[in-house]
Specification:
alpha+beta, Alpha-Beta Plaits, four-stranded antiparallel β-sheet, two-stranded antiparallel ribbon, 3 helices
Length: 102
């Protein structure tokens, strides 16, 4: 299994971010080929010390790292990446990694 974790910083307008994300971005992202699952955080994102710089966390699962590379190269993956500029006013960090069960 391989994952993409997207850490969305606090946006300028959280309500607008949430509405756009669920109504527009999610349908675009769900078309990405090879996507096995898509989850987002619910409620605030905190650290053990309290507040965090993140508004939302999204986790996308794929079978392999090669599937992630193919997903980013696809028209659907490119459309999802390009869409970030339309709502992620606070910026976002993408973490991509292969997983191993323990």
């Amino acid at each position: 299994m391989a994952s993409i974790v997207v850490l969305y910083n606090h946006p300028a307008d959280p309500a607008a971010f949430d509405a756009y994300y669920t109504e527009t971005h999610v349908p675009i992202a769900k078309k990405i080929p090879g996507l096995l699952s898509y989850e987002i955080s619910k409620g605030g994102v905190v650290t053990p010390e309290g507040a965090s710089p993140y508004h939302m966390v999204a986790t996308l699962k794929f079978a392999t790292m090669a599937d992630i590379q193919a997903a980013f190269a696809s028209p659907e993956g490119q459309a999802a990446s390009a869409d970030l500029a339309n709502f992620a006013t606070g910026g976002a960090a993408l973490l991509i990694f292969d997983e191993t069960p323990l």
